[in-house]
Amino acid sequence: MAERVLLSSAVEAEPMWLPNIKNAEEVRPYQWAAPQMFATGGQNRLLLGDEMGLGKSLQALLCILAGQYQKILIVCPAVVKVNWANEVEKWTELTPSVVYGRSGDYETGDVTIVNYDLLQHRLDALCEDDYDCVVFDECHNLKSQKAERTKAAKRLAKWPTVQGIIAMSGTPILNRPEEIFTTLNMLKPSTFPDYFLFGKKYCAAIHNGYGWDFGGASNIETSDDGVTVPLNHLLKDVMLRRTMDDPRLSSQMPDLLETVLEVEVDRTQYDEAYNTCMDQLEYHRTTGSGSIPPGLLLNILTELRHSAGNAKVDVAANWAIDYYEQTGKPLVIFAHHINVVERIATRLSLKAQCGLITGSTQDKERQKIISGFQEGHVQFLICSTLAMKEGVNLDTADTTLFVERQWVPAHEKQAAARVRRLTQESSVCHKVVLSAKDTVDMHFDKVVSEKAAVVKAALDGTDDDKTRVAQLVADSLLKERRK
Asked: 348 and 224, same structural domain?
């Protein structure tokens, strides 16, 4: 146990030789602590409790490779299923497979990925697949003891073939310790065997005349009664936890972490727009001069971007809600089209206080909304990117979510800089970009990342630069359609 305790907050560890690893040279020193703690003592159990942005997905994969597991199941929120598949392909030689739908056959790879909403419906089949390692990403989704997904997860964790369990959450220590019991019971059933006993020790349990209330907290950092071992002490044997403000990590972390999160969306309306637009592009390519008028090209791709943006509204809102519930931090959300911004605001206003700023927002109202956000009265600030990319300090947040990309990369850079101010207290800021799978988003992302010269030229934001980007994206779309 002593060695695991030392590793529980380590920010440096020696690299390990691992089978089936790719891009090992990109693993940061602090990330090697995960597979070492996972394997130490032969427990093969770990709660990855690092804050957002420290690369928990990679660390979980390192643990999987260290355990040399043959059949792995990853359970996660639906919004990150595709991203998990991408991470598996980037860092390992393993083959990922994603489960869709509540019924029907599904393919299994070395790593099978399923979301929590499907877990109870697919449980029997998943158990029959005899996984030897299970990962529970965002394990706070299992906080309710009565939820069907929680019961399904516990059954999976106890399946005879399961040797390794990895739980992940950026907010493992909650205000209500009862919410973490399922995770701890799955990881260390001998230490946390019984919900009622856990509640008596760590949830300030009281009998309210009708039943036991486990909504409180006790014996967390110190022993309240001088006998009970504090919960934080027990966690050091099972949880790896580092935070962004740890000064020991400053040399390993960039000032801005950018993540492009590939997400699945309902493409019904997008596909209709796509087919219409592609027919127009094909027509101009095969008739007349064989060229596409620049104005038409921009209009077509703008329509596709708009359609993809509308398809991402629900995903964006769900991501924002999960982020706020996990971190308790406010969030700045950027989108390009007015109706996309407004639809996101409508969704989020059902959960928390929102501020909405577009190009038509009057200066007095705009400043009132910004002040409310900076003072902590507004949890979500949803903005039109071009209306809020300059001259505003939003340093009460450290994360920006981009629902729609901009033609000009400099505009995104300026918008993300609204939270990267000299007065920012967080050591690292995050820029998260939602990219809709199998839409124009993916072609646009590819062009931006691969055509450095185009990006550099586009910094000035001329119409010619935008046309060049549009032409490259159109070429990519047409090539895909002809396959």
From this structure: no
